[in-house]
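Changelog-adjacent note: as of this version, every example in the card shows the full chain rather than a window. The one below runs 291 residues end to end.
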Amino acid sequence: MEKKGNIFNIQHFSIHDGPGTRTVVFFKGCNLSCKWCHNPESISPKRQILFYPEKCVGCLACIKNCPGKCHKVGENGAHIIDLSTCQRCFKCCEDCYAEALVAVGEEKDADYVMREILSNKPYFDYSGGGVTFSGGECMLQVDFLSELLKRSKEAGIHTAVDTAGNVPWERFEKILDDTDLFLYDIKAFEPERHKELTGVDNKRILENFEKLVASGKEVFVRIPCIPGSNDDQLPLISNYLEQFPQVTAELLPYHAMGNSKYIALGSKPQIDIPNMDKKVAARLKEKYHFI
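Full-length structure tokens:
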């Protein structure tokens, strides 16, 4: 049976997820629950509905066609969704031409994903770019990931894997030969603080990081910085990374762009603070030798 993967987005022409111009394939499902996650639709492996009421034009197609009758119009004219009666048929998303209702997550085969990747090969060749597999956590679907990496390498495409590293080391061994670059998240250094912020401690994450560096693969560390949450971890992370002079580390200042997605999923952000000030971020980068 042909392998399929649970994908929630394929983003073309990215310039922030590895060298050059890149296609980023986002896998759905994550085994961390970071309080600041800017892609909350990536956490659950299940297909979900995002609802953006500001886009609703009141055509009522979802109300007419929903078999579970979970779409209603409230007293004030607001569109209401009762997810407790939703049958997950996603017909409402298919009928919503205004894209106020969006289905997130779909099973895709390797041929489909490779067509998307290969469509941009001329841009990769010109810019020194390639494909980046991200998430969620792409390494939770390592068999599908491995197939895409092999096929990308056979096509002469630079490959990168963006991971939080919270998987058994055997999964890294499965993809090492076909991965040119690892983008590796380090979110906190103290194990208990890491668990408080992400739901798991970082023992396995740091062990895998050290093995990955020792393997000789190119590793690029990315450190999200969330004021009031993990910014006190920066000196500890900086001191730790001094052991690995061959590794470049990038500071990722917090932004609130994901907050609307929490609301669209019917929940609310766990952290509600403004975007990190650019000048503050610049000072932290200089102080701790991050880019």
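Structural remarks: The chain is about 30% helix and 20% strand.
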